């Protein structure tokens, strides 16, 4: 397990003096006036409102911000007194997206990739690869396929790739934002073990503070307007500056940003009923068999379960996008309104006013060049008149605080804004049922609260909501019902719904 | 899903891919030079013999080589129907002249396509992309940045396939999937291009953060061997080419295309 001794590199110190960075083509700097000193071996949790430039700082420290053609540097940023680009290999960076940073097809080769680039001799590479994989607890054969790893395993692989390079500084940019709770714990524990074993300086960016408190010994908060807002030992910063932190969207331990009032829907109005449903994306290969489920108007149904169990497939099937493989899926007349009862047989345009879908990754559903045009896509497909279209879009822009972005390209929005926009595009056509896949992924406390209020508002208007989620707080504080999908043995019987999520979900 | 398969557990899988590609070159040259049934048929017999001997017989007759067996006769038929007429006319219909000469050319073309494509397909199925990259960069000394960049891009093809499916469902959900196929596919293709560029950008950052593209001389964790086995593979390729040419010349059917 130990990578220390002759193996470890001396920890790096970080110094920023009036540092800032402005992306080419942007008017305002992403970071400005930053003065910060981090000593060798310190473990820092870096917090701040979205847009405060946390990622930019990490990229700057990793030396991957690019040259003068990509942006403008202000002040100076030094690793052990040297420019980050000159100190390449001293800092290792792990990014948020587990899929986008696997370079090679085999586990061993992927870890070796960085060592090859550093010019390490072949005899030395493989022992270092094995030691790094051991350190992050990935006990897999070196020729195991990286494509077969889970999200948590991929993040640990990325960490091993960085670790093998023996960096004096480890930079983690929201390494657990896209993982399920098990994956989060896996990665956090691996980082903790690595930090102890190597003694390297550690800087983590993450919204959810409680995950990282056991690992870090210092908290630094960046201000939205530049500079450092707060800095010190975790307990002190979190207790003394709690209100500032909450205002910046930081998710403090044990906080629930907002709790939904109980649903007022008295009598149940079933909108969609599934019985003995077999679901799958590939013909003939069912991921779940015999699903029994009911979706009621005016209630939020959370679908939970481990990664790979078929939650997203179930959501897409309920949304009328994938045909079921067997069994029955029927929409009641409240939804079908004259069409036949099977949603997957409806035309694309007929779905709009009946069932809306919000995909896990908002980018997948953007089809227009501006926020306003994006919101008009649905109403246009419904052939609504100009005035009606404009009224609906303006109302949504205002309700979701996207007015100032009406002309912006959807792809340039922040994560929270993209999510709000993707929900807005689905509700612009006023569907009776809304299906959401991981609506709260990667949201900070403020955007989480806004989103939750929006969804509960829809619920109280009588819309039925189905949300696939890993987010335990969402299940606990927002959903009215909880449906758990379990891993099925070849022909095992079905999963069980449990009503009253608020009482059942707590662990 | 991923198309960058891990080294398949097949015979010849551990041979340097550069040698496997090189071995097919001499025969291809011979078969491009001459247009006759004999040389190509001899080559096919040799190929079947060699692949069966090294234990690739299963792959040879598997559905994965089926496209070759289907495409080759189709090319042949078009030569029979539309090839330059010569010799006795067997059948005529409008532009179609089936003559003794065109039937010969048709048969020769069919055999040629099989003889060239069969070893290419079978050998390619034994190649792991990572090994190919190692071979290209270490054996042929192609620039590492280019080779590894292409290898990393290949890995993204798998996620692009998933993207395409999801984009299709997303468009149905947005109410715009009832449009004509052409318009829908164009829009979807553009969306996928945007997603791919973004993914590629992130991967490039991750690679750069791990020292890729720095000025340091790069080392290789895996050695691309080029030894006896590789030379034997190339020699076998040369022998097959030589045998095919010799038999064709001795039987008098050698027929250089430009003569």
From TrEMBL, chain A:
<keyword id="KW-0813">Transport</keyword>
<feature type="domain" description="ABC transporter">
    <location>
        <begin position="14"/>
        <end position="250"/>
    </location>
</feature>
<comment type="similarity">
    <text>Belongs to the ABC transporter superfamily.</text>
</comment>
<dbReference type="InterPro" id="IPR017871">
    <property type="entry name" value="ABC_transporter-like_CS"/>
</dbReference>
<dbReference type="GO" id="GO:0005524">
    <property type="term" value="F:ATP binding"/>
</dbReference>
<dbReference type="InterPro" id="IPR015856">
    <property type="entry name" value="ABC_transpr_CbiO/EcfA_su"/>
</dbReference>
<dbReference type="InterPro" id="IPR003439">
    <property type="entry name" value="ABC_transporter-like_ATP-bd"/>
</dbReference>
<keyword id="KW-0547">Nucleotide-binding</keyword>
<keyword id="KW-0067">ATP-binding</keyword>
<dbReference type="Pfam" id="PF00005">
    <property type="entry name" value="ABC_tran"/>
</dbReference>
<dbReference type="InterPro" id="IPR027417">
    <property type="entry name" value="P-loop_NTPase"/>
</dbReference>
<feature type="domain" description="ABC transporter">
    <location>
        <begin position="272"/>
        <end position="507"/>
    </location>
</feature>
<protein>
    <submittedName>
        <fullName>ATP-binding cassette domain-containing protein</fullName>
    </submittedName>
</protein>
<dbReference type="InterPro" id="IPR003593">
    <property type="entry name" value="AAA+_ATPase"/>
</dbReference>
<dbReference type="InterPro" id="IPR050095">
    <property type="entry name" value="ECF_ABC_transporter_ATP-bd"/>
</dbReference>
Automatic annotation (TrEMBL), chain B:
<dbReference type="InterPro" id="IPR051611">
    <property type="entry name" value="ECF_transporter_component"/>
</dbReference>
<keyword id="KW-1003">Cell membrane</keyword>
<feature type="transmembrane region" description="Helical">
    <location>
        <begin position="105"/>
        <end position="126"/>
    </location>
</feature>
<feature type="transmembrane region" description="Helical">
    <location>
        <begin position="231"/>
        <end position="254"/>
    </location>
</feature>
<feature type="transmembrane region" description="Helical">
    <location>
        <begin position="42"/>
        <end position="62"/>
    </location>
</feature>
<keyword id="KW-0472">Membrane</keyword>
<feature type="transmembrane region" description="Helical">
    <location>
        <begin position="68"/>
        <end position="93"/>
    </location>
</feature>
<feature type="transmembrane region" description="Helical">
    <location>
        <begin position="17"/>
        <end position="35"/>
    </location>
</feature>
<protein>
    <submittedName>
        <fullName>Energy-coupling factor transporter transmembrane component T</fullName>
    </submittedName>
</protein>
<dbReference type="InterPro" id="IPR003339">
    <property type="entry name" value="ABC/ECF_trnsptr_transmembrane"/>
</dbReference>
<dbReference type="Pfam" id="PF02361">
    <property type="entry name" value="CbiQ"/>
</dbReference>
<keyword id="KW-0812">Transmembrane</keyword>
<keyword id="KW-1133">Transmembrane helix</keyword>
């Amino acid at each position: 397990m130990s990578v220390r001794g002759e193996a470890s590199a001396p920890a790096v110190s970080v110094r920023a003096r009036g540092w800032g960075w402005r992306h080419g083509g942007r008017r305002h700097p992403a970071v400005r006036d930053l003065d910060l000193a981090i000593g060798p071996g310190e473990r820092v949790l870096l917090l701040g409102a979205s847009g405060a430039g946390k990622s930019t700082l990490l990229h700057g420290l990793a030396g991957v911000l690019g040259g003068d053609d990509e942006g403008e540097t202000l002040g100076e940023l030094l690793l052990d007194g040297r420019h980050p680009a000159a100190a390449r290999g001293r800092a290792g960076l792990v990014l948020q997206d587990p899929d986008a940073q696997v370079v090679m097809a085999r586990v061993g080769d992927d870890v070796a990739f960085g060592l090859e680039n550093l010019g390490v001799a072949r005899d030395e590479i493989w022992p270092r690869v094995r030691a790094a994989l051991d350190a992050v607890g990935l006990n897999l054969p070196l020729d195991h396929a990286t494509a077969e790893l889970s999200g948590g395993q991929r993040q640990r692989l990325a960490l091993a790739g960085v670790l093998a390079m023996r960096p004096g500084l480890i930079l983690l940019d929201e390494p657990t934002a896209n993982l399920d709770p098990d994956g989060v714990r896996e990665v956090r524990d691996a980082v903790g073990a690595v930090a102890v074993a190597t003694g390297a300086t550690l800087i983590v960016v993450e919204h959810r503070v409680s995950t990282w408190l056991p690992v870090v010994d210092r908290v630094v908060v960046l201000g939205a307007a530049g500079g450092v807002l707060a800095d010190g030992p975790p307990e002190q910063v979190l207790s003394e500056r709690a209100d500032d932190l909450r205002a910046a969207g930081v998710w403090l331990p044990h906080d629930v940003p907002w709790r939904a009032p109980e649903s007022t829907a008295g009598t149940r109005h079933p909108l969609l009923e599934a019985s003995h449903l077999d679901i799958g994306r590939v013909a003939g290969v069912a991921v779940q068999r015999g699903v029994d489920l009911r979706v009621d108007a005016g209630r939020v149904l959370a679908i939970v379960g481990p990664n790979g169990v078929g939650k997203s497939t179930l959501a897409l099937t309920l949304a009328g996008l994938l045909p079921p493989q067997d069994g029955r899926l029927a929409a009641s007349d409240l939804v079908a309104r004259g069409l036949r009862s099977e949603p997957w047989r409806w035309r694309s345009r007929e779905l709009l006013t009946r069932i809306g879908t919000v995909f896990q990754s908002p980018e997948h559903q953007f089809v227009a060049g501006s926020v306003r045009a994006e919101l008009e896509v649905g109403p246009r497909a419904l052939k609504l008149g100009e005035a009606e279209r404009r009224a609906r879009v303006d109302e949504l822009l205002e309700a979701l605080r996207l007015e100032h972005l009406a002309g912006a390209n959807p792809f340039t929005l922040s994560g929270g804004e993209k999510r709000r926009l993707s929900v807005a595009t689905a509700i612009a056509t006023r569907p009776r049922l809304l299906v959401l896949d991981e609506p709260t992924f990667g949201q900070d406390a403020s955007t989480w609260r806004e989103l939750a209020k929006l969804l509960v508002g829809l619920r109280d208007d009588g819309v039925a909501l189905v949300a696939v989620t890993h987010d335990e707080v969402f299940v606990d504080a927002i959903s009215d019902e909880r449906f758990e999908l379990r891993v099925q043995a070849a022909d095992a019987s079905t999963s069980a719904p449990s009503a009253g999520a608020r009482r059942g979900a707590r662990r | 899903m991923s198309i960058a398969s891990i080294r398949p557990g097949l015979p010849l899988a551990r041979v340097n891919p550069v040698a496997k590609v090189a071995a097919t070159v001499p025969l291809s040259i011979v078969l491009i030079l001459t247009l006759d049934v004999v040389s190509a048929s001899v080559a096919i017999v040799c190929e079947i013999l060699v692949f069966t001997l090294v234990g690739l017989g299963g792959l040879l007759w598997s559905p994965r080589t089926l496209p070759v067996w289907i495409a080759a006769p189709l090319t042949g038929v078009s030569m029979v129907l539309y090839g330059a007429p010569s010799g006795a006319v067997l059948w005529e219909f409008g532009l179609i002249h089936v003559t003794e000469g065109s039937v010969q050319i048709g048969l020769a073309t069919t055999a040629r396509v099989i003889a060239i494509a069969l070893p290419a397909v079978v050998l390619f199925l034994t190649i792991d992309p990572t090994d190919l990259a190692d071979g290209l960069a270490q054996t042929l000394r192609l620039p590492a940045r280019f080779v590894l960049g292409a290898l990393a891009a290949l890995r993204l093809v798998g996620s692009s396939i998933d993207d395409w499916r999801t984009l299709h469902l997303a468009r149905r959900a947005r109410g715009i999937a009832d449009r004509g196929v052409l318009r829908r596919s164009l829009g979807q293709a553009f969306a996928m291009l945007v997603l791919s560029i973004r993914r590629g950008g992130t991967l490039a950052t991750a690679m750069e953060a791990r020292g890729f593209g720095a000025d340091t001389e790069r080392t290789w964790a895996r050695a691309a061997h080029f030894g006896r086995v590789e030379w034997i593979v190339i020699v076998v390729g040369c022998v097959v080419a030589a045998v095919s040419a010799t038999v064709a010349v001795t039987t008098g059917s050698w027929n250089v295309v430009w003569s």
